[in-house]
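Subject: design request, 768 residues
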């Protein structure tokens, strides 16, 4: 099989890790050598077998010394096991020297990013120079299927070999040894066509087309003739396309639509519709919408794949308009910081693809917690929280150990910089400190889960920030970051920036004025405006930070704006056009839901029952909630069944028989569940989980959710009823909103689509 990625394995010289500085000697031959076979590319989620041969070096290996094989922590490959010869991932080892080998596997036993380790200890004797240790990964000789490959494409999955030749407990990487197996995409299971969601008449846009495998990897294992049908005339779009991508996806550039309207593009192979792109709203106005995922990591830090492949994926396979790389600062070497700045300058293409240099300030929650840092230009000083994984400490004087230190350093330096508060391993503590001029947004969704609380907790203390969603993906797939089968529980998010053009200046201004909204991974058009009954004052910057900021006299404002009025009531106007049916829209003032609107009524309800589970254990790193459950219907049968947000195909989640659904899944603040179309409205539903149960007559299940509070952090079980047919994809409405006299009125909306996505507007901050 031919290798499809042109980027290869990550250069070891750019990876931030803490290899021991102690060495047994200056001769590299002391540590021995290793080789791995085969090194041919393998498909994701296939079973494979490898043989690693280690040859002992000049010093030999002392009794209780040994070698260690390490892999990156961000992996969902099979875990080595040594006890079941017929089971998956069976590993054996032998040597031609004295004594025996004791094997021990630890999923989190190494030093970041090489946390996953297999240790082979030499017991009952010693090894001489030239002796060999042979390790069989995926030994099939007694019935094992082999080693299970990871779910995501990688230029080279590394087997890092280290040796402890003198039984000191210090394992040192073999020099000049990089053993890596390329991982490529599998066969296609779905087609995807991607458009932006807001452009002006005759404004240029592009259409992205790709086929993905079961795990969300764009794949080159497909060739087809595609035919397009459009709802509006599109200049520059061919009627048919010979789809034969050089590298897993194709982009059709330079497209325009001359007239106002909503563009949908259907994609056909023969007469079978395989994908639909849209909606793209063509509308005269001051702004267009540019989609971004500004938060992810690569193999130079704790993720996978190279920085070059990361930017290529964002532009050419996720079809983004805006991106940035966000490596953990304590692992980001000076060499890689320079290389990253070189790459952002190369990839930044004003008007087409905006790329910001940046990093993740990764201070512990106790000193402020994770914050994303975006610079307007290259060449700025990186101010780390610490140098914990960096041998080179010559620039330690630039560290900012606390969030307060970071704010002060940026103010003093005059850097053109924007920050987001982030929830990841170390969640941001929004009560620790806040600079309204620098920190413009909070990240309410990523592959780590959904975290509305990071926004709503700030309303009572007067924080005026916008909503962003990103992936924080670690698998090198910004803009289309599937969680795979590891610690991430959700599809990565996206942010739509509303501004006049796609370049660094315009996107930065959109960030500073909070003119953006976020989704859990879908692309929809959202327009949120407030009309004021009298001329009011719009602030260009948060007056809490800039009291003399420029103001404008206005009678209408858009999402993210800060406006002062003497009115006690304003009119909210909302327009949403989504890729799928809209299940509901919540109008909110701060944390309060003022009204829930649906495109259907009680009279439209059918035999579709929706069961959802959601939430997390707590706010910190180990937040995953494991849901084991069973739903059984009585006196009716399931005629149709569809899962919602089932991102891990390997997890148990399926219909059993005509009346039962079972699952073993996880949530991390997000939600998942299923729809069941039943034969009758009558009957009974019993939902039993490890976090509680619901038992209801189906006649009592209606428009409003029946909710079981299951403790934890917003851990809930919900049952509701929906219409049988697909829901409307558009909702437009106005509502009068009463304005509280004291403090801010953060007016915003949350959209839920019937296929399980969410979207949040940045609030309009109205005060009197």
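Subject: RE: design request

Done. Sequence follows.
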């Amino acid at each position: 099989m031919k290798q499809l990625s042109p980027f290869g394995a990550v250069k070891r010289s750019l990876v931030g890790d803490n290899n021991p500085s102690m060495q047994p000697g200056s001769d590299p031959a002391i540590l021995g050598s290793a080789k791995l076979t085969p090194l041919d590319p393998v498909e994701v989620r296939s079973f494979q077998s490898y043989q690693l041969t280690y040859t002992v070096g000049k010093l030999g290996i002392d009794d209780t010394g040994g070698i260690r094989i390490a892999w990156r922590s961000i992996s969902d490959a099979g875990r080595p096991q040594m006890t079941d010869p017929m089971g998956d991932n069976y590993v054996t080892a032998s040597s031609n020297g004295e004594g025996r080998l004791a094997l021990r596997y630890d999923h989190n036993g190494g030093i970041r990013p090489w946390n996953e380790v297999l240790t082979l200890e030499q017991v009952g004797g010693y090894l001489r120079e030239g002796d060999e240790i042979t390790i069989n990964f995926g030994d099939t000789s007694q019935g094992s299927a082999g080693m299970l490959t990871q779910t995501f494409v990688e230029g080279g999955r590394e087997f890092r070999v280290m040796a402890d030749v003198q039984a000191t407990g210090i394992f040192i990487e073999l020099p000049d040894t990089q053993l890596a197996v390329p991982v490529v995409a599998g066969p296609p299971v779905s087609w995807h066509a991607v458009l932006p969601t807001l452009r002006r008449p005759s404004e240029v846009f592009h259409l992205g087309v790709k086929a993905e495998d079961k795990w969300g990897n764009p794949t080159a294992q497909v060739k087809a003739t595609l035919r397009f049908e459009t709802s509006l005339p599109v200049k520059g779009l061919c009627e048919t396309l010979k789809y034969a991508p050089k590298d897993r996806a194709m982009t059709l550039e330079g497209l325009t639509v001359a007239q106002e309207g909503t563009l949908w593009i259907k994609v056909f192979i023969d007469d079978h519709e395989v994908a639909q792109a849209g909606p793209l709203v063509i509308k005269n106005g001051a702004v267009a919408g540019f989609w971004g995922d500004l938060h992810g990591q690569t193999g130079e830090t704790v993720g996978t794949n190279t920085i070059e492949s990361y930017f290529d994926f964002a532009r050419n396979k996720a079809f983004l308009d805006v991106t940035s790389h966000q490596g953990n600062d304590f692992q980001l070497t000076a060499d890689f910081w320079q290389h990253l700045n070189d790459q952002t300058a190369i990839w930044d293409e004003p008007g087409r693809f905006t790329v910001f240099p940046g990093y993740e300030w990764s201070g512990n929650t106790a000193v402020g917690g994770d914050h994303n840092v975006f610079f307007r230009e290259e060449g700025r000083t990186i101010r780390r929280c610490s140098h914990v994984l960096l041998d080179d400490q010559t620039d330690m004087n630039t560290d900012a150990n606390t969030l307060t230190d970071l704010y002060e350093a940026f103010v003093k330096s005059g850097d053109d910089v924007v920050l987001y508060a982030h929830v990841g391993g170390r969640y941001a503590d929004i009560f620790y400190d806040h600079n309204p001029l620098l920190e413009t947004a909070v990240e309410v969704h990523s592959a780590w889960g959904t975290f509305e609380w990071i926004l709503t907790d700030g309303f009572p203390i007067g924080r005026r920030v916008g909503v962003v969603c990103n992936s924080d993906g670690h698998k090198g797939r910004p803009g289309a970051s599937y969680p795979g089968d590891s610690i991430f529980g959700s599809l990565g998010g996206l942010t739509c920036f509303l501004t006049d053009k796609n370049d660094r200046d315009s996107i930065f201004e959109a960030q500073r004025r909070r003119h953006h909204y976020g989704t859990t991974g879908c692309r929809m058009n959202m327009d949120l405006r407030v009309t004021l009954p009298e001329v009011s004052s719009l602030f260009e910057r948060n007056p809490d930070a800039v009291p003399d900021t420029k103001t404008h006299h206005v009678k209408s404002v858009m999402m993210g704006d800060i406006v002062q009025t003497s009115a006690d009531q304003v009119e909210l106007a909302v327009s949403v056009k989504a890729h799928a049916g809209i299940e509901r829209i919540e109008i909110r003032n701060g944390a309060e839901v003022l009204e829930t609107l649906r495109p259907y009524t009680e009279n439209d309800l059918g035999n579709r029952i929706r069961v959802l589970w959601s939430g997390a254990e707590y706010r910190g790193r180990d937040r995953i909630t494991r849901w084991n459950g069973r739903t059984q219907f009585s006196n009716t049968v399931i005629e149709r069944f569809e899962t919602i947000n089932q991102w891990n195909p390997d997890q148990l989640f399926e219909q059993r028989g005509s009346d039962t659904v079972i699952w073993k899944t996880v949530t991390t603040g997000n939600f998942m569940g299923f729809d069941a179309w039943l034969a009758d409205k009558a009957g009974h539903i019993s939902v039993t989980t490890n976090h509680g149960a619901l038992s209801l007559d189906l006649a009592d299940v209606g428009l409003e959710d029946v909710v079981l509070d299951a403790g934890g952090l917003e851990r809930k079980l919900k049952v509701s009823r929906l219409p049988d047919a697909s829901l409307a994809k558009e909702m437009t409405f106005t509502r009068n909103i009463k304005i509280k006299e004291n403090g801010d009125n953060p007016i915003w909306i949350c959209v839920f689509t019937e296929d399980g996505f969410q979207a949040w507007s940045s609030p309009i901050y109205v005060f009197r």
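The longest strand covers residues 525-539.
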